[in-house]
Specification:
The complex is a heterodimer of chains A (296) and B (241). By secondary structure, chain A is an alpha/beta fold. Chain A is built from ten helices and 15 strands. Chain B is globular. Classes of the chains: A alpha/beta (296), B mainly alpha (241).
């Protein structure tokens, strides 16, 4: 397995009007991988493929060394003892009470820690008597996270797990995820539209668009090395002509008052063009420049 | 499979409790209304097999539970077998409630003198008990058959789509053959095999025949459920969630 707790190679799946095309994705031990992309880009389909919920047209994936297509079969189901999954909604029948949810997980997982679940439920203010349908979206996601953490998994696969959480609760959730991944042999794959969460927790960012991986970069490269230069039209021409950004790699996004340019090395850029403001890059900006920007 | 079964029972618990209480009430009303306790357990048994199959499928689509369930340490085989075990549990629970209601009505009407002659009609004599055993087992077979028809369709299509198609499928499987048979002329005049049927019914009325008949129907229900489970598994294995 060579340190890869999740490994996907050439994942291909065709639907009417959408295809996942040769998606490669790895999550290494100790890593938090942020999986980003627009709505309908293929994040959930990729996660479903990793979990063996759909039949692939090509390629393959492994989770903890077990082929994904075996995860729903008797030969591979036991591996899921070590995988915690959270989808973007509380994926449980609405009439169940929080305590019933604990009972379901206790039946499902040999490694279920009822005390840990009760403690997490208490800490997250989850009333054991409250029904799933009566929980707000945020409380529902807290319940899902508590369930995913209370059976001591090795890998967490989170699909929009922090959506709906208020800023305080998101902080708390991110702290718990950070604690989780700090222990040896663990990793997290986390799809999210809230890129500020990923800026705080992710080690690597993988972006998918129209079913294809667009970039797969260490987060620090995006947020620490690259920059966004706020150019006027004349500045833009000067930057393009200077060769500081290699030809055909100059990504830009025009807007009403100027042109934003993706700068691979913001410190070198600042030395060369001290008069052009160059801001620190955010994952959102990087994604926008990569997906919507032009290339020159 | 045990894990999936326990999960099904946890999900089913509240619905099951309501259903059992409702079943008891229906059994009492049917018994009193028909002035015989013979039919009550059979009706409840049949009803519970059907409601078990349909009720369980309804939960699968709530909040994507059917998809999420496969992220738990369960195989598709576990899910299918757990579902059938839960349906059988509910069906047998219904039978127990129906029988309990029948015995309760009989006991109450035996202890309390009612106006008219209902007390006598609701008495559990050997003839009523035999009839009740046969009718209940027969309805177990019918309920298990209906559950066996609908459950693979639910596993393949999901509850929403299956519910749209099921009336057509039920009509095609259970009504059209009777209509065709009636119009075919095969039943005009003497019923084919009428003598054998009459002999079989006479045999059923003997204590040995009753036992063989009931055991045969239970075995047939088990076989039908097993075949249905195998089909469900085949269909569910290829379903994309």
């Amino acid at each position: 397995m060579s340190g890869n707790l999740i490994e996907a190679r050439g994942l291909t799946k065709h639907y009417d009007g959408f295809s996942l095309e040769s998606v490669d994705l790895t999550v290494n031990e100790g890593e938090v991988v942020g999986f980003i992309g627009q709505n309908g880009a293929g994040k959930s389909t990729t996660i479903k493929a990793l979990l063996g919920l759909i039949k692939l047209d090509g390629g393959g994936a492994q989770v903890l060394g077990t082929p994904s297509d075996e995860l729903s079969h008797p030969s591979g189901a036991a591996v899921k003892e070590r995988v915690g999954v959270v989808f973007d909604t509380v994926s449980l029948p609405g009439h169940l009470r929080v305590s019933d949810v604990g009972r379901i997980y206790r039946s499902a997982y040999a490694s279920w820690d009822a005390h840990a679940f009760d403690r997490l439920a208490r800490e997250l203010d989850l009333d054991p008597k409250k029904a799933v349908k009566d929980l707000s979206r945020g409380m529902g996601m807290k319940l899902s996270l508590a369930c995913a953490l209370a059976h001591d998994p090795q890998v967490l696969i989170l699909d929009e797990a922090t959506a709906g959480l208020d800023p305080m609760a998101r902080d708390e959730a991110l702290d718990r995820l950070r604690e989780f991944v700090a222990r040896p042999g663990r990793a997290i794959l986390m799809s999210s539209h809230i890129t500020s969460d990923l800026e705080r927790i992710a080690d690597r960012i993988v972006c998918i668009d129209a079913g294809r991986i667009v970039f797969d970069l260490p987060k620090d490269v995006i947020t620490d090395e690259t920059g966004i230069a706020r150019c006027r039209v004349a500045d833009f021409e000067r930057v393009a002509a200077s060769g500081v950004v290699p030809e055909r790699e100059l990504r830009y996004l025009r807007h009403d008052y100027g042109i934003d340019v993706l700068v691979p090395d913001r410190f070198a850029f600042a030395e060369n063009f001290p008069e052009i403001p160059c801001d620190r890059m955010t994952i959102d900006d990087y994604m926008a420049l990569t997906l919507k920007g032009g290339v020159r | 499979m045990k894990r999936a079964y326990l999960i099904e029972l946890t999900i089913f618990r509240d619905y099951g409790k309501q259903l059992l209480a409702l079943g008891f009430l229906v059994a009492v009303l049917v018994g009193c209304g028909m002035q015989t306790v013979l039919a009550a357990p059979s009706i409840i048994t049949c009803m519970f097999f059907m409601m078990g199959a349909m009720g369980a499928a309804a939960y699968d689509e709530q909040n994507d539970w059917g998809r999420f369930r496969l992220t738990l340490p369960l195989s598709r085989r576990d899910v299918v077998l757990g579902r059938y075990a839960a349906i059988v549990t509910l069906g047998l629970g219904g039978m127990a409630v129906g029988l309990l209601a029948a015995f309760a009505i009989s006991a109450v009407t035996g202890a309390v003198e009612l106006p008219g002659e209902p007390s006598q009609a609701l008495t559990l004599d050997p003839g009523t008990l035999s009839g009740m055993a046969f009718a209940t087992t027969f309805c177990l077979l019918i309920g298990a058959t209906v559950a066996s028809v609908v459950t693979p369709i639910y596993f393949r299509l999901g509850q929403t789509k299956a519910t749209q198609l099921l009336p057509t499928i039920i009509v095609m499987l259970f009504v059209l053959p009777v209509v065709f048979l009636g119009n075919s002329g095969l039943l005009d005049g003497a019923l084919p095999g009428a003598e054998q049927i009459a002999a079989f019914l006479a045999y059923i009325e003997t204590p040995g025949g009753l036992f063989v008949g009931c055991a045969g129907m239970v075995a047939a229900a088990a076989v039908i459920l097993a075949v249905s489970a195998a089909l469900s598994l085949r269909l569910y294995e290829t379903r994309e969630l």
